[in-house]
Structure formats: C-alpha cells, structure tokens
Design goal:
The chain has one helix spanning about 1-20, and strands at about 40-45, 60-65, 70-75, 80-90, 95-105, 110-120, 125-130, 135-140, 145, 150-160, 180-185. By secondary structure, it is mostly beta strands. The strands form three sheets. A five-stranded antiparallel beta sheet has the order 1-4-10-6-7, with no helix packed on it. Strands 5, 8, 9 and 11 form a four-stranded antiparallel beta sheet that branches. Strands 2-3 form a two-stranded antiparallel ribbon. Strand 2 (about 60-65) and strand 3 form a beta hairpin. The chain is elongated, with a radius of gyration of 27 Å.
Length: about 190
C-alpha cells in the first residue's frame, strides 16, 4: 500500500512537471539572409520558335524578363503533331547542373491521346520523354545530366489529338488545353527534390 501511494505521488509530480514544462516556450533568433545571384540555367528560344504553325499561326515561345519562366503555345490539329526545337535549356554557368521536369498539372482531356515533351542534347546521349498526361517527376528517382557548362539542351513537343467526334471543318474541341510543368535543377544529384 505504501509503495502504491508512493507511485501515485510520483505520477502526480510527473504530471504536474509536464504541465509546467508544456507552458514554457523559448525563442532563439535566427536570421535568414538572401544574397541573390544570376540564374545559372535559363530558357532561350529554339530554332523554330516563332516559326510557322498551322493555319497561319506561329509557334509561340515567350519567356519572363529573366528567362526563368516559359510559355509555349502551339496550334495542333487532329492526329500527331510534332514541334521540333522550339525552346532551349541553357547552362550559362561555368559548372555543371542536374535537373528533372515535374508535371504539376497534366492534360486530362481524353481526346489528347499523347502529349510528350522531348529533351535532348546535341549528341543525343541524353534523350528523354516527359509525359504530359500524368503528374510526377521525370526521371522519377534520379536526375538528368549533367548539363555541362555553356551546354544547351533542346526541347520538342509531340501532341496527338484523336479525330473521334471531329470534323474536317472545325478545330478539335478540348476541355483541357494546358499543362503546367517545372524545371528543377541542382548543382548535385544526390538528394531528392522536395
């Protein structure tokens, strides 16, 4: 009985101490300092950017002021449409970088039966396809590269639109006509991208 009372008393003291400790908060100051630098990886227009597309349209490639954002507009029709060398991923640094492409918002329209981005270097030792009909990273478990100093990689787009329900007198009607991607790069290839 005495041991039981002693145990109850110890538990009561422990509970009281934990209640007291839970109400104490200590704040240590931390400073995060930003020292911006020039972007090592940028987009530039490919050889066919601004080139002639179907029905008098042009292949639209526009970049933000720092060439770190990219908008591509193409005008495909039914069946397979292949757009070659419409943008370039360029390393303007003196060191190599590794990268991957993350599709954050995929094409969901069932009439788009194939939508891929092709990324390759001049010797085609790197030649990968990024599927734009599902979200995720390419490659999923590693990095591409290295994209060496002053090297350029080229980007093509391959889109296939089903002609089912279509007409020779009208353009394909799509419920979802855009996909969103991110180019993720790093000076090392050891860690997973968050």
């Amino acid at each position: 009985m005495k041991a039981e009372r002693k145990l109850i008393a110890l538990l009561a003291v422990a509970a009281l101490v934990s209640i007291v400790n839970a109400s104490v908060f200590v704040y240590y100051p931390i400073t995060v300092s930003l020292q911006p630098t020039q972007p090592p990886i940028i987009f530039s227009k490919g050889k066919n950017a601004g080139g002639q597309d179907l029905y008098g349209n042009t292949i639209g490639v526009s970049m933000g002021n720092a060439n770190t954002s990219l908008t591509i507009t193409v005008h495909p029709t039914y069946q397979t449409n292949y757009y070659r060398n419409i943008t370039v991923i360029k390393n303007q640094d003196s060191k190599a970088y590794y990268f991957k492409i993350r599709v954050t918002d995929a094409f969901t329209d069932t009439k788009i039966t194939n939508a891929k981005l092709r990324i390759y270097n001049s010797g085609r030792s790197i030649d990968i396809w990024v599927y734009l009909t599902s979200t995720g990273d390419t490659p999923s478990d590693s990095w591409l590269g290295p994209l060496n100093a002053n090297e350029k990689w080229f980007v093509d787009i391959n889109i296939t639109i089903s002609e089912a329900g279509g007409s020779p007198n009208s353009k394909p009607s799509l419920d979802d006509n855009s996909a969103s991607l991110q180019l993720i790069y790093s000076p090392q290839d050891a860690e997973s991208a968050p």
